[in-house]
């Protein structure tokens, strides 16, 4: 396990390096200058670019930026002079994290519950109904669900607020719009895995010993059936964070996603790079933790890692 963990950490560092490098050069392909706003003259633009070092050769800019990045300096936002990228992340990340965590928690709880019900129900109508609802939810795009929920439950019925993230009521619509797809996937994974586990020999042996179905479910089969779900939770966390960009824009939530969209529109190179590196770090960390938890739960996986 130790060797595997170190190998994954090294792969994560290399991935971040490649991500930062690719993003650095790609943002430079965006037409125009970050300072070409409001009819500013070309002389002023050139002077400001010189102040920020944008008139230097691209390779020199890259070396300077990567050197600062290694020291933990993400630079200063071009559109908010005097405000560092780290300050922008510190201000907006808790909002996005709370929204994504709430959506992931809701997806896990409801998805697992529906998956269990689908696996253990004796009624074909219930099993097929859960499967059909899951297919519908999985097929609805994130932005379409957000707009539909906003129009019906906020604009038309007025049950929930339409903008911001100030009270628990503000979380309801954006969380629902974000949780639908992962909930459907988790429900299918849990249902299929449980159905397979219930047919295995250890379950038959437990029944022969007189154990009840509920005890067998929560003591034995659910832990094994949850391993595929855990393998999905890591990428799902990344999906929720990127998916929250749309939700934050539609529901006017001042989070990381809306800041990222704004940085692209304003050609704020340092902010785009800083947010990309930060999000990449979060995604790699979550996936590493997920892999380690799966290895801890599954002895076969641990043996495969040489633990």
Descriptive account of the structure:
- The protein has 307 residues and is mainly α.
- The protein has a domain at 94-267: MetI-like fold, CATH 1.10.3720.
- It has helices spanning 2-27, 42-51, 58-70, 85-120, 124-139, 142-156, 168-197, 201-208, 213-250, 256-265, 269-297, 299-304.
- Helix 9 packs parallel to helix 10.
- The longest helix is centred in the last third of the chain and has 38 residues, at 213-250.
- It is flat, with a radius of gyration of 24 Å.
What fraction of the residues are assigned to beta strands by DSSP?
under 5%
Q: How confident is the prediction overall: mean pLDDT? A: 78
Rg over CA atoms, rounded to whole Å, is: 24 Å
Percent range for helical residues?
A: over 70%
Overall SS class: mainly alpha
Q: Enumerate the spans where pLDDT stays under 50 for 5 or more consecutive residues.
A: none
Protein topology:
Blueprint: H1 2-27, H2 42-51, H3 58-70, H4 85-120, H5 124-139, H6 142-156, H7 168-197, H8 201-208, H9 213-250, H10 256-265, H11 269-297, H12 299-304
Write out key terms for the chains shown.
307 residues; mainly alpha; MetI-like fold; 12 helices; 77% helix; 0% strand; flat
